[in-house]
Every structure is written in structure tokens, then in C-alpha cells.
Amino acid sequence: MGKKVDFIIIGGGLAGTCLALQLDKAGKRVMLVHDDGPCASLAAAGLFNPITGKKMVKTWMADRIFPYLIEFYQYYEKKWNTRFLHFLPIYKPFDSFEEQNEFMGQMAQEAYRGFLDDSTDHERYKPFVYNDRLGFQTLHSGFLQVADFLKYARIYLDSKEARIQEHILDEDLVLEEDKVLCKGIEAKALISCQGMGAKGLALLNKLPLNASKGEVLRVAVPNFANDVIFNKNVFMVPAGQGEYKVGSTYNWKFENADPSDKGKQELSQRLQQMIRLPFEITDHWAGIRPASTDRRPILGKHPRHSAVYIFNGLGAKGVSLAPYFSEQMKELLLNGKVLDDSVNITRLKSLSSNN
Ligand SMILES: Cc1cc2nc3c(=O)[nH]c(=O)nc-3n(C[C@H](O)[C@H](O)[C@H](O)COP(=O)(O)OP(=O)(O)OC[C@H]3O[C@@H](n4cnc5c(N)ncnc54)[C@H](O)[C@@H]3O)c2cc1C
Question: Among the atoms of ligand 1, which is closest to the Cα of residue 194?
């Protein structure tokens, strides 16, 4: 007889892994199924940043999402006796006087309190970056060592026999009203957390996801600051031993998922415009972000299959969105909690006509 669990999760990136941990913590039996194909989470630089975008605004739901992500990742750091979450300020030198003025107005607003550091020592950063017009520094920011988090989560799930490595095709799935079968495993429900891989299943290929290709460089810069993330049209995350991850590009039209010369040049140029010191490129990679059409996560039940659920659309912010929304997903699965309209899959019409 095959194995029986409560939930099968397809996808071992941030979405699937956070959800597997949430359900496991709630005492449910899960099976995380993933292949070793493309995984945006493994390409990510891991940044979490409450003030983002060209207009430097507080990111969507920051007041709820940021405290939650800290609690979530720290819980697992403690449980597994390791560290993968690192707090570092993000320092953004201003590009122009207009930018400086606009931001100063914003900074005074109550909503930004607690997210910005008004005691920044701009002189300290002068030897490293061009900051003649000063800049601003965020609090509650930093980076997750995503590959390490996923590695430890996989070791943990393996210890509970809760993970298999398989590529899932449509023919591997038997979907009934109140149960699913996948590779000989039976569950009450299946949750697809496949990122762009969801497009490979007929069951999900109408999910309105846009592929956004991103590229990252690893650079070596001797004697450079490693207690801050610099960010001016490009960010620079300390990666240990004098190395930094520099990213990312955003491309909505591309031929393949490989790192490109164009991406390398774009990132090098932007880095040259930000830092005063020479650097050497030591690595270069690319990944594909699963972005929804309205830039909000996609959560909920498949409109045509009652035992199939979807957790996707984390776009460029998987590190900060996955913990909080995996919790919302768990609440939906275990307690039928109604999802917020802004993330509920019911707002998207295209999947209703799916097979
Ligand atoms: C270059 C780059 C830099 C980034 N930097 C950051 C950053 O600094 N901070 C941040 O928050 N976000 C960043 N992101 C975005 C982040 O990576 C995504 O938001 C996040 O990884 C999405 O996670 P996911 O689990 O939904 O998808 P993925 O990580 O893509 O995971 C999908 C999983 O599904 C599996 N899968 C798919 N189809 C199948 C199948 N048929 N059978 C079995 N398994 C399957 C894959 O193997 C994989 O394990 C970056 C992305 C890129 C590309």
C-alpha cells in the first residue's frame, strides 16, 4: 500500500518549503515533492527591504510582513541551531536633489517611523560609495542565505521522511474531489508551489504568471565595507570573504534562462557608478521570477479541482512574502480562513477556463 499524508506540496523553493514547515509545525503530515530543475529561490540574492522601488516607498504590507518574517526564520534558526538570517542596514545614496527632497518629505511621515535610520553616518560610507548628495538608511532590512535555509529545511524534512525528489507530470496526478494521488502517495489535497514551473502542467498552464528574468554577479572587492548593503540602481549584498552578490536585472523579454553578456555588462556598469573601488567578477548566474500580472501573490483553491491549491506569484520578494503568506495558506487549508481579496486567486479570471 502507498503512503498516506495530509498534504502533498509540489515545489521546493521558498513558497513550498515555507508552507511545508507551517503545516508540519501544525502537526500535519506533508510530502514535499520537487525536481532539481530551475528554482528562482536558489538564484535569489536573499534581500529583504521594507523601502523599495524607484519612488522608495514602504513596501506593501510591510507592517505585517516584516515582523512575521523575522519571527519565522529565527524560529528555524533556533530549531536547527544555525544562522541564515542576517540583519544589515541598506544604504541608498541619493541620485539627485529632486530625489533627496522628495524623500525627506516622505521620511517625516509617521508611517515610515521604525523603518528608517535618521542617525546615519554618511561620512563613514564616503570611501566606498559616491554619496555626495547623502542618502538614507533602512532598518529591519538584511538578507536570507536562501540556499542554506532550503538546505536545512530539506535535511529536516528528510528526517521526517517528508520529501522526495521527482519531476511531476500531469499523468502522475490523479485528482478526485476530496483526495489526490501522486507517485503512489495519497493526500487530502495538493498544493502547487512551482513558481514558473507551474506553466509546465496542463492543470496550471493558464495561471497568469509573467516570467521575469534576473541576473546576479558575484564580485570580489578587497577592503570593502561588509556591515551594510549598498543600493543605488543595483544592490550589493556581502557574501563573505571579501565577496558580494550584485543584482539584479529585470527582463520581461528573453530568449533563454542563461546568464547573458548584456546582463553582466549592465550590472558591472551600475556597480561602477555606485562604488569607488575596483572589483573582479567571480561568478554570474540567472533565474526566472514568477510574477503575477498585478504583482500580488496568488493563493487559493484551483477553480476547477477542489483538492488542488495554488501558492505562487511571489515575484521579486519571495524572502519576505513566503513566510507570511504560507501562514495564510495554512490557515486556509486547516481552518478554511478566508483570504484577503488582494491575494485570493478568485481575483484572476484566466484559470477558471482551465482543464
Ligand atoms: C536573480 C534573482 C534575484 C532575486 N533576488 C531576490 C531577493 O534578493 N529577495 C527576494 O525576496 N527575492 C528575490 N528574488 C525572487 C525570489 O527568488 C522569488 O520570489 C522566489 O524564489 C519564488 O519562490 P517560489 O518557491 O515561488 O518559486 P521557485 O523558487 O522557482 O521554486 C519552484 C520549485 O518548484 C519546483 N518545480 C516546478 N515544477 C515542478 C515539477 N513539475 N515537478 C517537481 N518540481 C517542480 C522547482 O524545482 C522548485 O523547487 C530573486 C529572483 C531572481 C531570479
Answer: 34
Residue 127 lies in a domain: yes
228, 286: one domain:
yes
User: Domain for residue 250, yes or no?
Assistant: yes
Flag whether pLDDT at 354 surpasses 70.
no
Whether 63 is covered by a domain: the verdict is no
Domain limits for position 137? 93-143+210-292
Q: Which of 19, 32, 39 to mutate to test the pocket of ligand 1 (most atoms within 8 A of CB)?
A: 39
User: What pLDDT score was predicted for residue 74?
Assistant: 98
Ligand 1 centroid to 288 CA: how many Å? 7
SS3 string, the chain, reads CCEECCEEEECCCHHHHHHHHHHHHCCCCEEEEECCCCCHHHHCCCEECCEECCCCEECCCHHHHHHHHHHHHHHHHHHCCCCCEEECCEEEECCCHHHHHHHHHHHCCHHHCCCEECCCCHHHHCCCECCCCCEEEECCCEEECHHHHHHHHHHHHHHCCCEEECCCCHHHEEECCCCEEECCEEECEEEECCHHHHHHCCCCCCCCEEEEEEEEEEEECCCCCCCCEEECCCEEEEEECCEEEEECCCECCCCCCCCCHHHHHHHHHHHHHHECCCCEEEEEEEEEEEEECCCCCEEEECCCCCCEEEEECCCCCHHHHHHHHHHHHHHHHHHCCCCCCCCEHHHCCHHHHCC
**Residue of 9, 14, 146 with the most ligand 1 atoms within 8 Å of its CB, for mutation:** 14
Residues above pLDDT 90, as percent of the chain: 83
Task: Spell out which residues line ligand 1, taking CB within 6 angstroms.
Answer: 10-16, 33-35, 37, 39-41, 43-47, 167-168, 193-195, 197, 200, 214-216, 247-248, 287-290, 312, 314-320
Looking at the fold, whether 281 and 217 belong to one and the same domain comes out as yes
